[in-house]
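Weekly sync, protein design subgroup
Attendees: M.S., D.O., the rotation student, P.L. (late)

Item 1: inverse folding check
M.S. brought a backbone from last month's batch and wanted to see whether the design step gives back something sensible before we order anything. D.O. pointed out we never logged the input encoding, so this time it goes straight into the notes. Structure tokens as presented (484 positions):
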């Protein structure tokens, strides 16, 4: 397999103009996979200019929605046809188990392109109910040049949640993947060319956040910038926009999601097992990771016992082994950061119930055991800060009132959940939990049809569903005077 690390600008693979590059290192064993172009502001200028030319001449924007649909559905088919190759790239690059890359990531990417492709020729604009001597058309117009900046935890999927609706609505795109996981973004854009997305419409610039990302964020000819990543970096993008051309900004940011288990749920074992599965899925490197488990005291001991037992199923293993359920952390620096939280939590008085060690160091890779802290208070750092690793905090509470209070006592508001068989409590929680997503008696539901995003410091705007199309379009009103 040829692994490409060049940028893709105006339909051509190119090195950075500076000729600088950096190594893409696999977290599985520390091996260098390839060199990746280290794009600077001058490369970003070229990509944005190519995207602008493509938008201005209408080679994509002016195609009938049905034609864009055909191309996007073809891209979905190409993603399916290259499933194994894309899954392998994703796993080598960021360390998730190959079984997840294959059955979750690649499949979801293909579905995403097919879904927006299928949707786009079924959406009508509006005629407003104005007086009869006028006609007022309310149409959705593409923004123009859209930049997408994405993280490394689901590299290709996070890119697709932005690129698919942006392309479906006729925009030109410049995508910047994370410097920790650039490879599938490049390959996806290459497949898009093969599917028939015209040159210049979907560009990829690789590089580091403070250089490449910032250059996009401050660019005067980018009309909208849509970011997924940490809350800290999301703040930078708001500043970049404010200090440049006030480009439209969308932010999908971090989380510290509360997961409430109440004694009124009929099957505490099931609730606790599902909670552990969700907390340790993708090595805990998940924005919606239910990392704060808020449990009613009367069922606390049973919950912790099941959590600890279930965590033992997540044995760190070689990500390319199809049997592995729990892979490598994305890289060395993130591994170090996650491990620092073990000492932080213990110093704050949390009790280590299981895990807490870096393992398999002889492999040269980045592996951490699933880790559970009990007797956590919500004001501890382990409960307030996003760890983005396999670390679960258990916070005992007296009753549902305290549970909801603790759940909302966080700067974040991405996901939340509650386990109860009491209908009124479920409805109350669904209203009172301040989060973009609330799960009742589940944690793993997912579908393209529903919006995804956060309240509070977890973001602005929504990915997925038809609502995402609002991000990539401007509403335009056209008044027409009829007769005299
Ligand atoms: P990050 O914020 O460090 O990086 C995200 C992107 O921003 C990368 O492409 C990076 O190169 C770029 N970047 C970094 N510093 C920058 C700077 N100073 N200026 C401009 N760009 C910069 O996040 P990450 O570590 O890649 O991903 C983990 C974070 O992403 C977590 O906080 C997680 O919760 C969040 N996330 C959110 C969602 C969601 O939908 N809400 C989904 C996945 C991940």
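Designed sequence read out in the meeting:
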């Amino acid at each position: 397999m040829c692994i490409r690390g060049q940028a893709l600008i105006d339909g051509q693979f190119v090195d950075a103009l500076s000729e600088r590059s950096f190594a893409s290192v696999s977290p599985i064993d520390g091996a260098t996979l390839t060199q990746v172009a280290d794009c600077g502001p001058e490369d970003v200028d070229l990509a944005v200019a190519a995207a602008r030319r493509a938008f201005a001449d209408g080679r994509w924007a002016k195609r009938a929605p049905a034609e864009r649909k055909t191309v996007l559905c073809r891209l979905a088919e190409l993603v399916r046809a290259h499933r194994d190759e894309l899954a392998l790239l994703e796993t080598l690059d960021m360390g998730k188990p190959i079984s997840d890359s294959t059955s979750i990531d690649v499949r979801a990417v293909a579905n995403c392109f097919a879904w927006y492709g299928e949707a786009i020729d079924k959406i009508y604009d509006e005629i407003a109910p104005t007086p009869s001597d006028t006609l007022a058309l309310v149409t959705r117009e593409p923004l123009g040049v859209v930049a997408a900046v994405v993280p490394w935890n689901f590299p290709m999927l996070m890119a697709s949640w932005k690129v698919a609706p942006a392309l479906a609505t006729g925009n030109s795109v410049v995508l910047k993947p994370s410097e920790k996981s650039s490879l599938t973004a490049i390959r996806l854009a290459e497949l898009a060319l093969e599917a028939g997305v015209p040159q210049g419409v979907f560009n990829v610039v690789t590089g580091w956040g403070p250089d490449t990302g910032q250059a996009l964020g401050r660019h005067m000819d980018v009309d909208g910038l849509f970011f997924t990543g940490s809350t800290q970096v999301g703040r930078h993008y708001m500043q970049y926009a404010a200090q440049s051309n006030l480009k439209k900004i969308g932010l999908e940011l971090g989380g510290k999601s509360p997961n409430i288990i109440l004694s009124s749920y009929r099957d505490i074992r099931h609730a606790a097992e599902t909670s552990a599965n969700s907390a340790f899925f993708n090595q805990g490197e998940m924005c919606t990771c239910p990392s704060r488990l808020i449990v009613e005291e009367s069922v606390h001991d049973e919950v912790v016992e099941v959590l600890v037992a279930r965590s033992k199923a997540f044995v760190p293993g070689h990500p390319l082994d199809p049997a592995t359920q729990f892979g490598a952390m994305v890289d060395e620096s993130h591994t170090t950061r996650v491990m620092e939280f073990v000492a932080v939590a213990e110093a704050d008085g949390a009790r280590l119930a299981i895990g807490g060690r870096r393992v398999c160091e002889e492999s040269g890779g980045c592996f951490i055991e699933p880790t559970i802290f009990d007797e956590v208070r919500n004001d501890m750092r382990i409960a307030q800060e996003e760890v983005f690793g396999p670390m679960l905090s258990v916070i005992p509470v007296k009753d549902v009132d305290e549970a909801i209070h603790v759940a909302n006592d966080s700067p974040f508001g991405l996901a939340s959940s509650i386990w109860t068989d009491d209908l009124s409590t479920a409805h109350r929680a669904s209203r009172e939990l301040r989060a973009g997503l609330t799960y009742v008696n589940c944690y793993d539901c997912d579908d393209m049809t529903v919006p995804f995003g956060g309240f509070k410091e977890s973001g602005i705007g929504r990915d997925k569903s038809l609502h995402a199309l609002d991000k990539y379009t401007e509403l335009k009103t056209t008044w027409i005077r009829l007769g005299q």
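Discussion: The pocket of nicotinamide-adenine-dinucleotide is lined by residues 149-153, 158, 176, 178-179, 208-210, 213-214, 217, 228-230, 233, 236, 252-255, 287, 386, 388, 414, 454, 459 (CB under 6 Å). The radius of gyration is 23 Å.
Action: P.L. to compare against the previous round before Friday.
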